[in-house]
Amino acid sequence: MRKLIVLAVVGLLAQLVDGGLGMGYGATSSTLLVLVGLTPLVASASVHFSELGTNLASGVAHWRLRNVDWSVVLRIAGPGAVGAFLGATVLAALSTAWAKPIMAGILAMLGVYIIVRFVVGVRPQLRKQLTVKFLAPLGLFAGFIDATGGGGWGPVATPALLSGGRLEPRKVIGSVDTA
Prior knowledge:
By secondary structure, this protein is mostly helical. Helices cover 79% and strands 0% of the residues.
């Protein structure tokens, strides 16, 4: 019973981080579940099952606050689902030890790019439309990383959309959470 309460509190905190930053729930929850002894496959499945409810609540909240760009959601969600299916299939068949350093490198590059862009003073241009050529591969890749690592949809999709500077940060977070 104590483990269940600890997991519920961590899930609550992870969802608060995810709702505010557009990332963090899957990575935080998956890490905890693996630490308490679940296999990566079971941890990933458990996190994604719990995200059905948490993402629904987050998506509705962002929609009510007008933080959702539906054109982005429609263009990224379908490829994200395909990527997630492929990632879950790979996870069931292979070890994911190779994915950790690759994902860490990708996230580090995106983080450095965002910091450099804002330190240099490049201002985002919010008028340009995000295209399917950008969003579909992003959704496919983010879904794959998320399914293989138990978390990664937000950490991949949110910085990538923020780095483009074509969408307000609140709309990036709301759209990624809703998708």
